[in-house]
Structures are given as structure tokens and as C-alpha cells.
């Protein structure tokens, strides 16, 4: 599954390899294997996110805010101080890939085609907004399936 995801990302990113990104992420995982505090922070963050998603109303409670503030402060220290070089590398790799997404000719063509489609769907021949139910039907019954 990860190989498929990697291939998909690379195809959309101007056929740019994601090896450096995954290497930078793996460096953080290796750090966590050697540092119980970092590993515990990742585990606690995972538990917090799951609690927010699973326990109805938890996210609205003061307890959730207090827990988040502690996680944030500890994460700020770990990721922006102790492991700053590794964190910066991950961010730099993500920025690079994002730039490659923007540079990909097929992505540009797709974006232009989508823009034209929505202009055609929502505007008449004079460029004035209008509703075209027959095009919406085409979109939902032909294009999307």
C-alpha cells in the first residue's frame, strides 16, 4: 500500500522521487526509537487525537485544551529544539514536493480544465452567472462515475 501511495505522490509531483522525504521522516522515527521522551510524545499525541475523535464532546472541554497545551509545549521543545535539524529537513522536503506539484504540467492542465469546467457550469456565453442543470447532470452521471 505504501508503495502505491509513494508512486501516486511521485506521479503528481512532476515525477520527482519521494525518497528524500521518506528518509527524513524515517530519521525522526529512528530518533523516537532511541529517545523515550520523543517516543512517549508521539504515543501521547496519538492517544489525544483518538480521544478527540472518539469521545463526543471531549474536544470542547477544558481538559482537552489543557492536554493540548502540554502536548504543544513538549512538542515545541522536542521538534523545534532538540530535533530541529530533522524537523527542518522534513519541512524542506515537503516544501520541495509541493513546489513540484505546482510545476507538474499535467497538474497545471488538470487545474485549467477544472477551472474551465466550473466556468462553463456556472456562466452563460456572456460570462454571466447562470445555472445549467443539464451540465450538472452530465457531471454527476457521466464525468464522476
UniProtKB/TrEMBL annotation:
Stretches that traverse the bilayer: none
Q: Which residues form the HAM1-like N-terminal domain?
A: 3-145
Q: Which InterPro entries match?
A: HAM1-like_N
At the top level, the lineage of the source is Eukaryota
Entry protein name: HAM1-like N-terminal domain-containing protein
Q: Which organism is it from?
A: Cryomyces antarcticus
Amino acid at each position: 500500500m505504501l508503495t502505491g501511495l509513494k508512486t501516486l505522490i511521485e506521479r503528481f509531483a512532476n515525477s520527482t522521487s519521494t525518497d528524500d522525504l521518506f528518509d527524513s521522516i524515517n530519521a525522526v522515527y529512528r530518533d523516537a526509537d532511541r529517545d523515550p521522551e520523543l517516543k512517549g510524545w508521539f504515543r501521547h499525541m496519538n492517544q489525544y487525537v483518538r480521544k478527540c475523535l472518539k469521545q463526543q464532546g471531549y474536544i470542547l472541554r477544558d481538559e482537552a485544551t489543557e492536554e493540548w497545551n502540554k502536548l504543544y509545549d513538549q512538542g515545541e521543545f522536542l521538534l523545534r529544539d532538540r530535533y530541529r535539524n530533522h524537523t527542518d529537513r522534513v519541512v524542506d522536503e515537503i516544501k520541495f514536493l509541493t513546489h513540484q506539484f505546482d510545476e507538474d504540467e499535467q497538474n497545471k492542465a488538470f487545474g485549467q480544465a477544472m477551472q474551465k469546467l466550473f466556468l462553463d457550469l456556472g456562466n452563460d456565453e456572456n460570462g454571466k452567472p447562470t445555472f445549467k442543470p443539464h451540465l450538472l447532470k452530465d457531471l454527476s452521471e457521466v464525468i464522476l462515475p
